[in-house]
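re: ur question from yesterday

yeah so i grabbed the chain u mentioned. its 93 aa long if i counted rite. heres the sequnce exactly as i have it in my notes:
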Amino acid sequence: RYLSTGDFFQAYLSGVEAQAKALGIDLRVLDSRQDAALQADMVDQAIALGVQGIIIQHGLTESMKDAAQRAVDAGIKVVAFDVNVENPKIPQI
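ran it thru and got these C-alpha cells back, copy pasting raw so excuse formatting
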C-alpha cells in the first residue's frame, strides 16, 4: 500500500485541493508511488514546467535534498512535508 492511499492521505489531499481552489491555484499532483528516483525526477519536471511552488511530501533525505535545492536555485518556493531536505531555505512541516 502506498502513502498516496488510505484515509489520511485522502483527507490531506482533499484539504489541499480545497485550499488551492479557494486561492485560485492551479494544482498538479504528481505521485511517485514511493519511488525515490521518480520523486526526484518529478521535482525536475515541475521545475521545467515553471511552477511557482512545490510541496515535497514524504521521501528520503538522500534522494530529495538535491532535487529540492535545484528547485530553490530555479527560484521556486518549496515546502517539505514529512521529509527532511536539509535546507534552511525550505520550511519543513
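noticed a couple things. The radius of gyration is 13 Å. also The longest helix spans residues 7-23.
anyway ttyl
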